Amino acid sequence: MSDSSPRVVITGVGVASPLGVGRQAFAEGLTSGRNAIQDLDGRLSLVGPGAGALVDVSRRDYRNYFDTRLLRLSTMTRQTTLGCIACGTLLEDAGCPPNGEVYPDRGAYLGSFIVPPDFAKQARFAALMSHRPENQERGYVIDDSRLEEALKVASAFDFLRALPNMPSAHLSIQAGYQGPACTYLGSDSSGLQSVGMAVGAIRSGLAVAMIAGGAFCPFQEVHLAWQQVRGLWAQRAAESSPIRPYGLGRSGTLPGEGGALFLLEEREHALSRGATILAEVTGFSQRFAAPGSDDEVAVRADALSMAIDQERPDWLAPSGLGHPDLDELEARAYEDALGSELSSAGLVNAVPQLGFSGPAAGPMQLAAALLVARGEARIAGLDVEADPDCASLAAAGGRDGRTGAGSVVLASSFSMDGVHAAVALRVEA
Asked: Which CATH number goes with the domain that contains 230?
């Protein structure tokens, strides 16, 4: 970033989490130490790991967060809905709720993931339309006389809502933003990527304000099974949470859904509208390495070093999944990037309470760390017997960093897919 680049600040935080919806409810949930992970039922109980954390918002309450006449639920997947709930709380928190106006100089970037939709209705449609003729052992014919009945169970909107860019498009419609819009997909780091790319859009003059963050729902059988095959999920245990980041005996994480968004603004624009500035974005970096490559630690450490630059972090918000291999890579990267400065920082990790929400996890961790650094929330230290290979981060989990104006937050997302991103913030009064 050059000296002439516009300064980018955060003026609002919006959250849809299993601990609560909205900035205050999220802060209270973090401080309470409540564990939102629960046993799943129905079809999801038949696919590992059989437990996770859900956002408790009923369908009839959606209208409290967005206009259901403007954003039709038939065009929205669960992650789009979670993004719109978080966006509704974000715009209220930032003091600029939708007012019917449109803004060509504001946009929305959202990190999410492509999850195969449930095509049960389409399968039912096909079954109604086709049948095997009598006295034939194979082959099917289409029976047009059944079309009217079949159309009652299927809708073109079912395909429309699965389009990759629908989440950010819905946020733009919801807020009245007509500037840049993009849904970043394909990596668990895409939520923090969207934050960094939104900062770039403001610094380059594409927009004066951007909504950015992540939203995701992992509770779909194919996705859960895929991540289980990859070894991400922990075995469900009797204790309150089997997620044990940086501790001995850790076996993985558990799924959670949610959304966390930030309103990013060019500083002078924020001041001109009388916004409250929560923090300034001081750094962003993203790096890629092929999984299993020899430089997995180096590329993670480089992402951290580039984001934090010359500042000393007071609070760290790493991925902290409780995965044996990923935790160790993360600890080594933080040690290489921060050196002795790691010994004075505190650590914020809400994954044991919230589960892992994929692309939304990085923004959720960043939101939690920002609230802790501002003194709006507290989070319990890690209750683990530290793995010697992760001792530095485990020690940070039992330490408080500096809070208040000037304190620095460093958040990172290191994905199993080799995409890594880091964001640094400096808290304002």
From this structure: 3.40.47.10
Q: Is residue 238 in a domain?
A: yes
Q: Cβ atoms within 10 A of the Cβ of 9, count?
A: 26
Predicted TM-score (pTM) of this structure: 0.92
Residues 274 and 219: their CA atoms lie apart, in Å, by 40
Pairing outcome for strands 408-414 and 315-317: parallel
Q: By the 8 A CB rule, do 195 and 209 touch?
A: no
What distance in Å separates the CA atoms of residue 244 and residue 352, rounded to the nearest whole number?
7
Helical (H) or strand (E) element with 11: strand 8-17
Query: Under DSSP, is residue 253 helix (H, G, I), strand (E, B) or coil?
Result: strand
Helix 23-32 vs helix 361-373: angle between axes, to the nearest 10 degrees? 80
Query: Residue type at 381?
Result: G
Does 3 reside within a domain? no
pLDDT for 119 equals: 65
Q: How confident is the model at residue 310 (pLDDT cuts 50, 70, 90)?
A: confident
* Cα–Cα distance measured from residue 186 to residue 99, given in angstroms and rounded to the nearest whole number: 33
What are the CA-CA distances from residue 15 to residues 21, 186, 226, 346 (Å)? 6, 22, 27, 23
For residue 49, whether the previous peptide bond is cis, meaning omega lies within 30 degrees of 0, is: yes
Co-location of 237 and 174 in the same domain: yes
Q: Which amino acid is at 212?
A: A
Count of beta carbons in the 10 Å neighbourhood of residue 236: 16
Measured CA to CA, the distance from residue 388 to residue 241 in angstroms comes to 21
| CB contact at 8 A, 326 and 415 | no
Name every residue whose Cβ is closer than 8 Å to that of residue 385 and which is 6 or more positions away in sequence.
247, 248, 249
Q: What is the reported pLDDT for 394?
A: 95
| 148/400 Cα distance (integer angstroms) | 64
Domain holding 143, by residue range, is 120-158
d(CA 222, CA 420): 24
Find how far residue 142's CA is from the centre of its chain: 44
Check whether 132 has a pLDDT greater than 90.
no
For residues 313-321, give the mean pLDDT: 97
Predicted pLDDT of residue 1: 45
